[in-house]
## 1
Amino acid sequence: MAETKSKKPTSNEYLDNMPGFTLEIPKNAPRNALVKWYQQKMSYEEKYRMGLLTYPEYLEWQQELMNAEEAKTKPAEEGSTFWSGDSELRSNISTTEYEDFLAQNNVDVSNSTTVDFEKLKNELD
């Protein structure tokens, strides 16, 4: 018997024979299956976890963390209120309008945190 060699179809021929299937590869896509670590945009923390952080990058990262921590603990400057840049005229509302607003929105603003020290003293005696 004579063996006949059959030609294996290439992957492009498979794709050409499939109706409605098109494969478009982006121009800047990596040509291999492995994505190199230096092709990725990683934060300092991600680089640190992977062991890819250089010493100068580590120092920059620590400086950023220190600055962020100082910004949290730094007290607000005088005059840096949320209304400091507001130049619009404001008018106060009357007490009845305020009470109507609280009633309409079912808001309880009563202060029940006061302590009657005389009552406590009498209870202890």
## 2
Amino acid sequence: MGRHPTALPGALSLALAAITQPAPAVTLFCLQWGAIQVPAPLFAGDLNERLPSSYRATVLSLITVARSTDVGLVGLIVGGLAATALPAAFALMGVLVLGGALLFRINERHLDSRPE
């Protein structure tokens, strides 16, 4: 998982897809919610450190708009799926998060080649 635990919420979503008992489901959901919140300040700190101050506010605003649009559109799809098959919705969320964590991971090579 590296420095940013982005894959953990995806793995917990996949686990939620397989759970049928209420008590473990509530526990996993709480763990997932916490795991989702952990990387947010880490990413914010990294962005603030790496973006030049002359256009930091614009870039952060664009990221917020893109994230909100993505959450809204994917939320409609997952919500529609959850209305008919809740485990499938959790499985889809898990696959999307794990896929994104693998596809868009940042490594030290990316950080060393950034412009100053």
